[in-house]
Amino acid sequence: MSALLELRGLGISFGGMRAVDDLSLSIEEGHIAALIGPNGAGKTTVFNMITGVCRPNDGQILWQGQDITGAPPHRIASLGIRRTFQTIRLFPDMSVFENVRAGCHLRAHQRWWQGLLGSPAQRREDAMLAERTHELLRRLDLDGVADEPAVSLPYGLQRRVEMARALVAQPKLVILDEPAAGLNDAESAELSQTIFAIRDSGVTVLLVEHDMNVVMNVTDHIVVINFGRKIAEGDAAAVRDDPAVIEAYLGRDDEEPAP
Amino acid sequence: MSEPVEKQSVPSVWRIRTLSGPLLWAVGLAIPAVFDSSWVSIAAIFAIYAVSALSEDVILGRGGMFDMGHAVYFGIGAYVTAILNSSFGLPIFATLPAAVLLSAAAGALLAGPLMRLRGDYLLVATIGFNSIFVLAMQNDPGGMTGGSDGITGIGFPSLFGLPLASQSAMFWLDWVVLGIVLLLMRNLDRCEFGRAQRYLKQDELAATTLGVDARKVKTQAFALGAGLAGLAGTLFAVQLSTVSPASFVFTESVTLFAVVIVGGPGSIPGVLLGTALMFVVPQIFRDFAQYRYFVFGIAMIAVMVLRPQGLWPQRRRRA
Question: Which among B273, B253, B234 has a CA at the least distance from the CA of B90?
């Protein structure tokens, strides 16, 4: 089985700081994978490199075997990769509907002059994409707030709107950056169900998450990084008992005096 | 901080809103029948500058790119028509496509280096382009632009052998072009290209990760805005039957910029209102024309302080 996404020896420095170093991992199609690690471990930086927001100094990013290292974000998006942001980035002056509709941008094939002339083909396409957007809003139980300004919603709902925007074009891989941040217990339990539903609809999921309940419940494969390096990898049970992981999260409990 | 969403917009109100624009335009067609020739020429000037301001809005209001050299594209259109008509004897309508395409090409070309710049840096660079353009026209390259005096004796347009020489005929031409441009702008609001502009303006990073090609959309916006400005430039050359560098100096760009900001960026009625305030009111109060920039300066400050979204802001729309 070939990997959907593969990172080979990925590394990046900011100034003198090595944010990510020699990171290799691969994500299988149809899996739910997680990238975890303590604060500042470099998780979001890895996402930024995958989605073309920043360019790695070393290593390669392979998408279905094809090298996509350093491609600009819109090219990465056109491959069927979508993401959410740790700090939610919804379009502030737009409704929930318009925000989610934005996710359909690459499904619109109208030329700019067709749009300016208001051609029938362009109108048909817009109607079709609006229907697609409404369908997803219903599926994610957001249809009741479709016309509300997106940024006026409570935090948890805003996260869901951003997720809807990432999913509406039916991507191959969706990258969720801390989807449980700021959610209460009930909401994060619901989130687990949502992530399963996303996977079952044929979308591979990669997430960064601090909420260990969510991570342990949903993931097929976990990669743990600390200080930009991979320290463990495996399924939930294996990672949970790995001494290096426990040390990274809790610190060493039997500090030995220097000889 | 967010604007309340209009919920109780009953269908009849909605219909009045969508119909009032075309209705006003149709009523405008009767201006030559009701008013004397000086008013007709003021209305013609309004139509020309409205097209020019709407074209600036494509770049500044909708694109969020601080273009303070828009008079360049307006000027290219005017000069292309003037040169092709007076030196080469081409009919006005034959010069029009060349004026639009050359302006659009200039916009697309300048968009390249401008794209890398943000906000205030872009603004300064566009001022630079404006200065270069005016200097170039003054220096009469190849003996084509007539130096500081410009080009005079531009002919009338004629349609199917019928000369549109009268003040009224030229007004109707300008008014029809304005109507077409308004239709284009309305469509721009509703199509994917217009939406992509809004995504980029509100959050460029989020937009690009959704697949918006920022470079392409911005270049297209510059080309479209510049092309429409070139169209206005052709009308301007015909209306005055003369072009000179003084009509395309930096302060003209500032005025176009102010029209959009004061009227309401991205708002069609806002830009039209701004055009009326900036270009028509001074024509009416000719005696006070020297106070124009004084009054506008104060008006701009007042609007920015009291109503930063513009006099007639863009309204939230659903799709």
Answer: B234
CA B107, CA B127: separation in Å to the nearest integer?
14
Q: What is the mean pLDDT of residues A92-114?
A: 93
**CB contact (8 A) between residue B205 and residue A53:** yes
Chain A with chain B: Cβ pairs closer than 8 A = 109
Distance CA B282, CA B266 (A): 24
The HSE-up count of residue B163 (CA atoms within 13 Å, CB side) is 6
* CB distance A10 to A18 below 8 Å: no
Q: What is the mean pLDDT of residues A162-188?
A: 91
Residues 6+ apart with CB under 8 A from B98: B80, B81, B84
Lowest mean pLDDT among A95-109, A230-244, B169-183, B208-222: A230-244
Residue A81 pLDDT > 60, yes or no?
yes
Sign of CA dihedral A117, A119, A125, A127: positive
Q: Which of B253, B221, B230 is nearest to B177 (CA)?
A: B230
The verdict on a CB contact (< 8 Å) between A102 and B211 is: no
A76 is written with which tokens?
Answer: 């990465």
Q: How far apart are CA A177 and CA B319, in angstroms?
A: 28
E strands present in B20-125: none
Q: What is the pLDDT of residue B115?
A: 85
The tokens describing A154, both together, are 């409570």
Question: CB neighbours (10 Å) of residue A16?
Answer: 5
Confidence of residue B236 (pLDDT cuts 50, 70, 90): very high
A1-80+171-251 CATH, one of 1.20.1740.10, 3.40.50.300, 1.20.82.10, 1.10.443.10? 3.40.50.300
Helix pair B119-138, B92-115: axis angle to 10 deg: 140
The minimum CA-CA distance between A218 and chain B, rounded to whole Å, is 25
Contact assessment for residue B52 and residue B256, using Cβ atoms and an 8 Å cutoff: yes
What 8-state DSSP symbol labels residue A209? -
Q: Give the model's pLDDT for residue A142.
A: 93
- The conformation of residue B80, written as its DSSP 8-state character, comes to H
Task: Enter the DSSP assignment of B141.
Answer: G
Backbone dihedral angles phi then psi of residue A223, each to the nearest 5 degrees? -115, 130
Ordered by start, the domain boundaries in chain A are 1-80+171-251, 93-168
Confidence of residue A252 (pLDDT cuts 50, 70, 90): low
Kindly state whether B181 is in contact with chain A, defined as any CB-CB distance less than 8 angstroms: no
Rounded distance between C-alpha atoms, residue A21 and residue B276, angstroms: 60
Task: State the nearest Cα–Cα gap between B149 and chain A, in angstroms.
Answer: 38
Least confident of A66-80, A163-177, A241-255, B293-307: A241-255
DSSP H helices in chain A: 43-50, 73-78, 96-102, 112-117, 120-139, 155-167, 185-200, 212-218, 236-240, 243-250
Of B190, B195, B203, which is closest to A89 when you measure between CB atoms?
A: B203
Of B5, B187, B211, the CB nearest to A117: B187
pTM: 0.89
Cβ-Cβ contacts under 8 Å, B198 against chain A: 91, 93-94
